[in-house]
Amino acid sequence: MSQESSSPTSSTSARTAVVTGASSGIGAATVRTLTAAGWTVFALARREAKLNALAAETGCTPIVTDITDEESTQAAVDRILAAGPVKALVNCAGGAIGKDPVATANLDDWRAMYELNVLGTLRITQKLLPALKESSGSVLVISSTAGIEPYEGGAGYCASKFAERVMARVLRLELIGEPVRVIDIAPGMVHTDEFSVKRFHGDAAKAEAVYAGVPDPLKAEDIAECVRWALEQPDTVDVDQIVVRPRAEGSYTKVYRQA
Ligand SMILES: NC(=O)c1ccc[n+]([C@@H]2O[C@H](COP(=O)([O-])OP(=O)(O)OC[C@H]3O[C@@H](n4cnc5c(N)ncnc54)[C@H](OP(=O)(O)O)[C@@H]3O)[C@@H](O)[C@H]2O)c1
C-alpha cells in the first residue's frame, strides 16, 4: 500500500501498541496513558511481577521479554502478531550503566548499554517492521538528549543514545514512500524511580543527587503524553523529533537548582 492511498487520519481500527521497557518509569507510564486513551497494549519487559501488576491495573497484555535475547524477542513478536495488526512500537527499554570517565570506563558497562539501547531496539524493530508497514504504523524510540549533547562521564550512555537516534533517523530516510512513521522522542531530565539508581549500581544517594534542588524535573507521565500525542497524529503526519526537557534544564550542564 502506498502512502498516498492510506487514510489521512489515524486509523482507529487497529490501535494496538507494543511498549518495551514497560515494567517501570516511562514505559509503565506510557502503558497507562495509551490504555486510558483506548489503545490495546502489549507490555514487554523482563520482570514478570511488575508487568502482571500493570496488567491488573490497566488491562494491558504482559509479555515477559528480554530484548537483548533473540529467542525471547522472537517468541514475544510471534505472540503479538498472532493476535492481529500492530499500529505502533514504542521502544522504551533502555538505560544508563555507570558514569565513569572514558579513561577508566568499564567495557562491560558500555557493551551492556549498546546491547540494550541499540541492538535490542534494532532487534524488535526489525521483527515488527513488516506488520507496522501493513497497518500504516509507527516506530517510536525514546532516545535522550544524551544523544544530542555529550557530557563528561556520559560517553558510554551518550554514544548508545547517539546510535539509537541515528538508527531512527536513517530508518526514516530508508522508509520514505512507505506507510510507516518513525518518531524520535528525546527527553532531558525525567525523575523516574529506577533510572539513576541503576546507573549508579544501586547507590540511592548518588541517584537522588541527580535531581537535588531541581524544582520540577519531568515526570514519566510527561513523556507518555508526548508519546500518545505523536502516535495519535494523522498517519500522514510524522512527528520526526521531539526534544523535551524540564523548564529548569537548559542543557545537561546548565540546570537550575534551588539552594
Ligand atoms: N529517566 C530519564 O531521565 C531519561 C531521560 C532520557 C531518556 N530516558 C530513556 O527512557 C527510557 C526509559 O527510562 P526510565 O527512566 O523509564 O528507566 P527505567 O525505569 O529504568 O526503565 C527501563 C525499562 O527497561 C526495561 N529493560 C531493561 N533491560 C531490558 C531488557 N533486556 N529487555 C527488555 N526490557 C528491558 C526495564 O524493565 P526490566 O528490568 O523489567 O526488564 C524497565 O522497564 C530509557 O531508554 C532511557 O534511556 C530516560
TrEMBL record:
GO molecular function: oxidoreductase activity, acting on the CH-OH group of donors, NAD or NADP as acceptor
Classification via Gene3D superfamilies: NAD(P)-binding Rossmann-like Domain
Organism: Bifidobacterium callimiconis
Family membership: Belongs to the short-chain dehydrogenases/reductases (SDR) family.
Source domain of life: Bacteria
Domain Ketoreductase: 15-179
Coiled-coil region(s): none
Keywords on record: Oxidoreductase
Name this polypeptide is given: Oxidoreductase
Keyword presence, Signal: no
Transmembrane region(s): none
InterPro entries with a match to the protein in the record: KR_dom (IPR057326), NAD(P)-bd_dom_sf (IPR036291), SDR_fam (IPR002347)
